[in-house]
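Recap quiz, item 2
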Amino acid sequence: MFRVLTLIGFTFIFIHLHVTGNISKYINMKYSWISFSTIFVLLALTIAEMVFYWRGEEEKHDHVHCECGHDHGTHNHKRSLWWYPLYFLPVITILCLPVATLDSNIVEKKGFNFSIYDKKDPYSSHQFLQPNTSSFYGQEAYDEMMQKEFKKYGTKDTLNLEDEEFLNAMETIYDFPGEFVGKTISMKGFMYHTNELQKNQYFLFRFGIIHCIADSGVFGMLVEFPKDVSYKNDDWVKITGKIDTMYYQPFKKTIPVIHVIKVTSISKPSNPYVYRNNQ
Amino acid sequence: MKISCVDIFLFFGGESMSNSLLQMNTIFISILIEALPFILLGVIVSGIIEMFVTDEMLAKVIPKNKVGAILVASLIGALFPACECGIIPITRRLMAKGVPLYAAIPFMLTGPIINPVVLFSTYAAFGNNWNMVIERASVAFLVSVCVGIVLSFQFKEPQVRHEMHVHHHETTIGKKVVHGIKHIIDEFFSVGKFLIIGALIAAGMQTFVKTSLLTSLGHGPVSSHLVMMGLAYVLSICSSADAFIASSFRSSFNESAIIAFLVFGPMFDIKNTMMMFSQFKTKFVFILLGYVVVFVLIFSLLLVR
């Protein structure tokens, strides 16, 4: 009976997430077909298990002689009963608890350092901020893609970053920082401040998702205000400013920076994440 | 309902704690949603094999000489889609039918790693990148062949706990299919609980453990590989889903350490060690564990460029 209920529970989870659209808060929608097909597989297994359950004891006796190591609902069955509450945990938390969004708390824990594979020093993890997704692609295909991206963003004088192009544009800026100096950019994100920064400097971050939020990371830029400001972490703003580069001591690296011209506070977007969408 | 649950969290942990717990739960669910389809795919393929491939067919293919047997067994393991927990009983059954230990163990080691389902999920988890897939498969193959060769010199006896008699499967198609579906559901449940625990631990680590702490543990080449192997052992994630967990550690560990995770985890983890203890002699399980640790470490370190 537990098995029937568990399978119903899991089937329900997947249907629920797709119907409410909450699935986009967990995974990159590009892969939603995988979890959508899962609904039908789970449904089929649920029906099969129901049939087995209704046929009852008879089936179990059939398999007493089978020593293939699985729990065939015989001697192993009782011993594994205490596991079943665990199966209901995801069902309960999905129904009871609100979907949390990743924020500065996760930035702090995950660190905003992307120790992207560095050929010279594979054990260091000083590279950060830069959405270097080259490790996800083959090097050649990646270079080709970056050239294409550069043509797209590098030829404009004003960049207005929408969510769909956020990650790609960010990557292009970090790959060709010199080409973007002096251009005007406007982008949205949440504020993040660390002790290493001056009072007029903040990071403007977005969580970028490759597949699911477990593999997400923060992407964004350093922003510098003309005078000291006091924002809290996770305050959402839209910033317009000029791109420049500066040497940033904590990371011993020259990184792009935005000199803020205009800043407006905005409310947290209904979908705070940006997704990797081209491949 | 919603309000009351949140209130309970607030009561126990204060606002920031409750926020962390909610985030942990969200990451936990996202890992589950991402991994479950692949677990299902894995148990279904394994169920179909259960229905249509007999152990006798496999036993016939294994050659008589040692090296040939080891290579063929590793290859069959590579073509044989099974989870690391599903493959142990199959290995045991093969041995009962006369397959020698040194051939059965490589089969058991490659089976969960080199197969279409696992390789496809590795490909998807690492952003459609073939590099990780190729490295994972070749390291796994080398490790299993080396373990097989060492075992062929060391052990003459089967090292199993008790002799097992071969049982006959259902003969009619209908019964086979019913039996196969049962296997699918059984395997789903025997694997599911370890996935849930693994996802919980992984989500907890992402939410509560500072990554910088982990990286400081595994900084050097050897220690970073050992940390990742230990992690793979503790997390005990089914090989068809572990790539997704591994990819979330990509920001704290280098590629070769992640390969160590991806190769060691399916060969040895908490859940399949338990299953091995029930089938093999205790001393043998420890010896095998030692060999697998050493060979995975050596071959994954060779990947450091």
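DSSP finds nine helices and seven strands in chain A.
The first helix of chain A runs from residue 2 to 20.
End of item.
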